[in-house]
Write a structure and sequence with these properties.
heterodimer, A: alpha+beta, Ubiquitin-like (UB roll), DNA polymerase, domain 1, Alpha-D-Glucose-1,6-Bisphosphate, Chain A, domain 4, 3 domains, eight-stranded antiparallel β-sheet, five-stranded mixed β-sheet, about 30% helix, disordered C terminus, B: alpha+beta, Uridine Diphospho-n-acetylenolpyruvylglucosamine Reductase, domain 2, Uridine Diphospho-n-acetylenolpyruvylglucosamine Reductase, domain 3, Enolase-like, domain 1, five-stranded antiparallel β-sheet, four-stranded antiparallel β-sheet, 11 helices, globular
Chain lengths: ~375, ~270
Amino acid sequence: MTETVRLTVNGEECSVNVPPRAQLAEVLRDHLELTGTHLGCEHGVCGACTVMFDGKPVRSCITFAKSCEGADVETIEGHRGDKVMAMLREAFSRHHGLQCGFCTPGMLATARDIVARFDAPDEKTIRTELSGNLCRCTGYVGIVRAIQDVIDWRNASGLSAAGHLHPEPPVPTKIAPFSIRDETIPAFPPEPAGRVRTDGTWTTVNRDFSLTAPTSEVRDLFADIWSVASCIPGATVTNVTENRFEGNVEIRFGPIRATFRGIGGYSVNEGQKTGKISGRGDDRNGQSKLEGEMTYNIGPGTHGGSLVSAEIRFRIEGLLAQFNRPELVTGFVDYLLTRFTSNCEAVLSGGKATEALQLSVLSLAWSVLRSRLRKLFGHH
Amino acid sequence: MKPVGFDHTVPETLDAAIDALGAGGEVKLLGGGQSLGPMLNLRLARPERLVDIGRIDDLRSTAATDEYIEIGAGVTHAEIEDGAVPDPIPGMLPYVASGIAYRAVRNRGTLGGSLCHADPAADWISVMTALDARIVTAASDGGREIDMFTFVPGAYRTNLAPGEVVRAVRVPRFSEGAVWGYYKTCRKTGEFASAIGVFVADPAKAYCRVVFGAAAGRPLVSPTLARSIAETGRAPDLAALERELEALEPALSEVKARQLAVALRRAVSGAIG
């Protein structure tokens, strides 16, 4: 499905039919054949796609076409009659501010903005302002000089910048000691205690958490892959054969959604006191792989309850691996564990897990079937 | 890479946006799209529908009372950098805004979008926590005010209910004698911070707050350090900061704890010497 977007590009009114997912860069390059706008990283980091949008530089790779309705866009092919841009082009040539030319269209858009906003920037300021445009050829020296040259020319011509603020850090001011009013920081749900370590690939999280049910019930729950999976937020077991299972786990992390489908195994030892659940799977669309295992030990806790000591090891490969920062993972694992714990409590007290509704239905059906099977085979 | 296919609606009013959010399916609100855009292009996020709130005038307005400045969620970082909104604490918001990513990103990225994305390494969640700001939301039942502690329970998570939209951020006004410090460490200018330190003290309001950002999930707030800085008028030494970090978040690595301690010390020294 395409929609019509009307915008002005380099002074000409245009109308393009594009799908909702099209970015401004695609409109420029593929629909208007303005291939001077270059696409590098396509996630807003390299700056090659920078164009002027209503007079301000923006990333055309992360500006949706549909958000450009009525916008006035200038690309490297434009800037007609713009004396500053003409001077910048010349100065870039004169100072060897480009070699391969890939970064140049975006670099010039940013340079144009620096000249517009700054009266007399020093080299550090220019370099800081250029930090969002990567150049792999020049080492930036020529680019900085070119911009400096044009600003000097502009100032010598008696023109000034647009008078923008350039915020500075505060000037330190001594304060006399004073008393502060008490404030209560709202309590968060207590998170399980333990430690996290990573060797760069594998992350290991150790966590202890308490459950109110006695150890025998918790051990039964953990020994049953259907039941324990129903407590894992986002997990679905689709098939179990002996000690192997198939299933998927959906991970939700802010806007990120990944569904890892795969296989796993589980084993229970020493009268169900300890056990291990492992699995690995792929995210079909996102090209990420997840591999992990949880070993646990269920012992007596306080007030007749249980204490579960768990060690979770996992590694992530592919696109999602960039989110495998220990401090993010810690918070995320604790968030999942907190919900896992409350789901276990709910299931153990005869209810069902609040997360993974689909699975709750499955596991209820299974628990009925299981009790029949147990009678049949004489367990319990 | 192109994002997965999705529908893209651009409501003109807040009510229409709330209706669009409630229309079912996997929906994401799109502010300036400077965080969500990359995730869409990388296909880490694969929504069925985007509700683009960039054209809603209500979200772009600011209001000022004697107690607070209310900044519309759709105000961009560049607008804050350029002083387009009234200042609740002299110079702090423009300074923080000027250090967010790059100017081309600041021209589109919004205050509300950054807060809702709740990346622990982003600037506003820590700064708004230090300023005791409140999030003002709109929803079909009218909306509410949320304090920052409740609003960000963890990394990339907010307390927003389905169908609830952040309308504005309410920042209390500080007095003339208020001091602030902000320091962040980035491997490269404009990248996500590896450590953030924020310090705000207002003797006239008996207020002092100390926040470590880019730490773990949510910003870490230390009333203990705030009290000690207020009562001594001096920046704590690194050892004291590291001890407090150990108490606040035992899971931090030694390197992270040191980065955070240094960032906070520099923030405090920058404010009070």
